[in-house]
Structures are given as C-alpha cells and as structure tokens.
Amino acid sequence: MSDKVSYVGEFFVHRYNQVAMLGATCAAVFASLPFGWNGFALVGVLAAGAEIIGALTIPDLPSFRSSVDSRLQRKAREQRRGALLAELKPFGDTAAMSNYQHMCDRVNALYRTAGDSRSALTSKDVEGLDNLTVDFLGLCLLNLSLKSRKETASADAVQKKMAAIESQLERAGLPQDEERQLRRAMAQYAEVLQRARRLAIRRASLEATLLSMPDKMEEVYQLVMSSPYSSDIGAELEESLSRLRIAEEVAAEFEDPDPFELDKPARPVASPEPAAAARRAAQSLKN
Fold first, then answer.
1. Rounded to 5 degrees, what are φ and ψ at 271?
2. 213 class by beta-carbon count within 10 Å (0-12 exposed, 13-18 middle, 19+ buried)
3. Cβ atoms of residues 248 and 283 within 8 Å
4. Domain count along the chain
5. Domain-embedded: residue 177
6. pLDDT in tens, 118-140
7. Which of 211, 44, 235 lies closest to 140 in space, CA to CA?
C-alpha cells in the first residue's frame, strides 16, 4: 500500500496534527494579547517550524505508516462491505444474510477479546477474519448471480440450436461459405456446452465453500475463546486463517461470465463483476 498512499498528506490531515495546529493557533491568539503581532508571529513561526520538522520525520516512521495503512484498509473494507450488501439486498437471500450476521457477531466478539490487555490476541489478528466476512459476501453475490443467469438459459436451448444447425448442414447444395460458418457455429456451441459442464462443477465447489465458511469461522472462534490468553494464539489464528483463505481461489475459477451465450457464441469472454468483487475483497487479506 505504501506506493499508493501519500504519507505526508496523511500526516497533515491526521487528527493529532490538526489538534496541534488548532492549539498553536489558540496559543498565537493568546500571545498576541500582551505582545501584539510580534507575539502572534513568534508563535506562528515556532508552530510552522514544528510542522515542517514533523512532516519530514513522522511520515517515515514505521508505526505511523502501519497506522495509516490499517486505517485505509479498514475504510476500504467497509466501503466494499457496504457495496456488496447493497448489491445483495435485491436478492433477498435471508439464509446467506443470517450466516453473514453470525460470522460478524463472532468477529465482533473477537475484537472485544483483542481489546483485553491480558489477551495475546491483537486487533490486526482479528482483521483477517473480518476480511473473510467480506469475502463471504462476495461469494454469496457470485453464487446468486450464477443462479439468476442459469434461470435465463439452459443447456437444452444450446442443444436445440445445435440440432437446428445440423439439419441445415444436412441440406444438399449448401454454399461452401455458409457451410463453413455453420460448422464454426456448431464448434462454438459445443464449446459452450463444455464450459457449462465445467461451470456446474465449479458452482458445486462454490456452494460447498459457502456452506463451510461459517462453520470454519466458528471453529476459529472456539479455538480463540477456549484459550484467549495463550501466548501462541496469534500463530494458531494465522494457521487457521491460511485454511480459510479460499475465497479468491474459488472466485478466480469463474472467469466465464455466461456459458450459455446463445445468440453471440463468438463473443470474447470477459470477467464478471461479482467474481471481480470477490477477488478484490479477498485480495485485501494479502495487503
């Protein structure tokens, strides 16, 4: 994230810096009462010097950069969460929302545990699980999008079109150019059927993932809550997270947005927005 963020700019807009500037302004005003403009200017020069020194040193501090990165990641995660929830709302999938809310409840409980000074668990550890709740939303959106697409077309429709092309190819005296185009269309429709079969297998994997993620989240929650003060809890949580980081791999399998594209079989394939949404959500785990 460091190549995308202006840490100097973040320093200037940081709330502590703004409070310091407000305090310096008040001090300058009070200094101007007995000493006039000279007192105001003196405090102003000192404040400006301190601001310049701070801008040259503080943005390079690892602790400051880590704080900025964490804040921006939280902001991006919540923005993505809101966007996914808005996209999921029209589907009215109460079961998915119930699982999502349960996962969020567990994450919030872990945040409270991380806030306990006696616990070795940190908020940064829990953020990985918080990211997974957004991953879950992305996969839910992808699954619902695939279901709605499947309802609009089917493999039977493709096979009917292939049968119609076969009947045209059987006609005698068919021009060579027309026969070549029909055979090309036949090959493309055959490829559509193959993609549809692969998609059915991937959808089964996606549905299994959606069923298992809440259970795996519960396992992690029970692991932490059973020994919240263990010194090895961070390493154990990271190991559990490594098994849970599956959303990006699952979403990447759905590069074909519409295996049942019937009227334009030669159209190039483009990545679907829901799959991209799931990948972007999961990518935040690596930052």
1. -70, 140
2. buried
3. yes
4. 1
5. yes
6. 887 888 888 888 988 998 999 89
7. 211
